[in-house]
Write the structure tokens for this entry.
Amino acid sequence: MYVTVVHITVKPDNVNDFIAASERNHTESVKEPGNLRFDLLQSDQDPCKFILYEAYTCAEEAAKHKQTAHYQQWRDTVADWMAEPRQGVVYKGLKP
Amino acid sequence: MYVTVVHITVKPDNVNDFIAASERNHTESVKEPGNLRFDLLQSDQDPCKFILYEAYTCAEEAAKHKQTAHYQQWRDTVADWMAEPRQGVVYKGLKP
């Protein structure tokens, strides 16, 4: 399992729009053949902070995600809503 | 979905033992009725850095995890292997 934990901070005025756009991205991403998880999380402490938890069978399948229309639409839609650059951290999934 | 992202840094000499103990904890934790995910991740950049990604149906089910024998055994087993205190960050799972 190849996991990217993407840390996202959104401008306060754009939180609801960000959630809506990310829910659409989730709906399409979980249909990708190599996808195992695509969880959208909102911090309990700060509603502007989110995690996208993206698990794929391997690095190649994760890379294919970036070629999809739904990813590219999400990326362009949310671009101006970021309060700071997104940070993706890669992990090996040992279990499961 | 109630998610705790636990950030863990292990002393270099204890990495393999930590993985073995955490795999045992994973195996039992995913059997808990309220558990949705219990992923063990190792950083791609630093083999001493881990995440436990623990998703439960609600906060009450997550709290029950801490009462289980397998959690308490894991906690006591790994205590001396921590390079710094663990940090658990709580998120609301918006999707799924």
